[in-house]
Amino acid sequence: MKISRVGASVAAATALVLGLSACSNNQAATPNSSASASTGNLTGTLSGGGASSQESAMTSWIDGFKAVQPGLTVQYNPVGSGAGRKGFLEGQYMFAGSDSAMSTDEWTKSKSICGPDGAFQVPAYISPIAVAYNLPSVKENIKMDADTIAKVFNGSIKKWNDPAIASQNAGVTLPATNITPVHRADESGTTKNFTDYLSNAAKTAWPQKAAEAWPSGYAGESAQQTTGVVSLAKSTEGSIVYADASAVGDLGTVAVKVGDNYEKYTPEAAAKTVASAKKIGGMAPQDMGVKIDRTSTEAGTYPIVLVSYHIYCTTYKDQATADNAKAFGKYVLSAQGQKTAADAAGSAPISGDTEKEALAAIDTIKVA
Amino acid sequence: MSETTVTPPETRNKLTGGGSAGRAGDKIFSGLTLAAGILIFVVLAVVSLFLVLEALPAMTAAPDQITSHQSFWSYVAPLVVGTLIASAIALVVATPIAIGVALFISHYAPARISRTVGYVVDLLAAIPSVVYGAWGYLVFGPALVPGYKWLHENLGFIPVFGQPSATGRTLLTASLVLSVMILPIITAQCREIFIQTPSLHQEAALALGATKWDMIRAAVFPFARNGIISAIMLGLGRALGETMAVTLVLSAGALTPNLIGVGNNTIPAEIALNFPEAFGMRQSELIAAGLILFVITLLVNMLARWIVSRYSEFSGAN
């Protein structure tokens, strides 16, 4: 049973790697050939799995990492955050990618494969979630507070020129178009972070708890995946949608009220939000799982942010895996790795103290 | 004819008196058919066993263990209703058109035209469902929006014509796309049956002074009744299980009687949307929903068999 499952996952991973290398050949050929001579000597395979939100960033990391460590193959299976954490806890993956932080339960379980300190997580991929709209006549960023956003998405504000929106946008001519809210039809980390923002920052207008599935009581148009909702929004005038900021293209975006100001999404603001967020705590000492404060009033932060983690063991059973995990973890968090992901996936680069702390955490990976 | 009468005696011996070799061939062939018959049962049994085993945790779980924090049955009931509504509308729209097209091909059109029409209809069946889906949400859905607005303005007092969708991504659009998809299946099957109507029956009806329409009612339809029903069942099977087209066309949401607004969902679309990242209990819930669909399909087929058996005296044997 065990053997057949390992065999199956190896086969799947091989197919994935073949697929990825086929995609990446043309882009990575030049840096590869020039860099390989002067670089690392690690060998083997590091396999991980988890959040599909990280997929395009992960592809760029795997490509870039190949230039640094040509002998080491990294595989990533985008099976979803939950399945990734489960596979990691069962020893199927050496690291996991996850849109939500591990629970304390999961951390306790991880002790059986990761030594007495269990597993730990570092933020690897930060993506601001934009609230975007399709109103060709409006050139400015429309300003909204959390309450207004919640009411738009729960259907109680029906027109773009509703007084609730107009009062926050003096000087902007808002059309009388009907608002068509668009949400994800599939379950997703983006929805979870967006509804987490609404349920914390607009408690009365959004009494629902944060969840990966859109609350069924709130109707609205829906489509599959980020590309689906964005293309639906682009083809529907008057629509409003939440989606990874990198994917919204030429749609207008909402400036969200933080404190007394309205903040547009920027990579810097998203990174600052994560840097100022509180740690969850109660797990491994180097754990960097955070709880984002959606109601923060700190200027320059943007509250609707998706943080995706990489989960590693504090202690691996063999030297090779520990070295490989450490090398890959460091590459992902390095300025170069974060820039690669920002270019490929539009994520917000992790920098400053957060980056230092995360690199230090990766450095503590050791062998039993 | 004359050739068969002068068949050399050796060949006759080969056919009739093949000896042990002939009997062995007979046994092998009957064994092969038996194996094929058993195989289909084994496959069905293994699939249902898998479904039941994987579905059990979700079906027996307490409501708070289910992802949507309600009992599994209240989670799956709206999906079942949505699936049945979509398939029923698709059938109601597609069946009369399909029978009409089939009759046109078999009895009305001149030979050359009927061949072309038949060919085009067969071609429709070969289009992959994702293409129908893309057509549905890019072209067909938006084109229906003015119609939906009109329906809401003029017939809005009927609950099924509630607040219209701005994008046309509704259950009615999905049902209409489904009806286009099942049209060629029903047409092809009906056409084959209509063509096989004994010409003696038809000529007798005409000789008694029947018009062409009288003849079709008196000779073709009674002969073809079983065939039409099984054609509809084939179409229904496709409509019940269609995944991709519905997923692409429908703005899925909670169950609502409003067919021209957002909301509603079908079992296959729900599975397709959420299976890729599901694990643990969620995966089990989705497989259990699949099992329900499996049972529905089985029941529908049994019902169809029963209807067919009631009318067996009309079968074409006479």
Automatic annotation (TrEMBL), chain A:
Region (Disordered): 29-51
GO cellular component: ATP-binding cassette (ABC) transporter complex
Coiled coil (residue ranges): none
Chain ranges of the PBP domain: 37-335
Keywords: Phosphate transport, Signal, Transport
One Pfam family of this chain: PBP_like_2
Superkingdom classification of source: Bacteria
Position of the signal peptide: 1-28
Alphabetical GO biological process terms: phosphate ion transmembrane transport
GO terms of molecular function: phosphate ion binding
Compositionally biased spans, kind Low complexity: 29-45
Family the UniProt entry places it in: Belongs to the PstS family.
Protein name according to UniProt: Phosphate-binding protein
TrEMBL record, chain B:
Transmembrane domains' residue ranges: 32-52, 72-105, 117-140, 166-186, 286-308
InterPro entries recorded: MetI-like, MetI-like_sf, Phosphate_PstC, Phosphate_Transport_Permease
Presence of the UniProt keyword Transport in the record: yes
The keyword Cell membrane is assigned to this record: yes
Location within or outside the cell: Cell membrane
A GO term, aspect molecular function: phosphate transmembrane transporter activity
Domain ABC transmembrane type-1, chain residue ranges per copy: 80-304
Source organism, top-level taxon: Bacteria
Annotated protein name in UniProt: Phosphate transport system permease protein
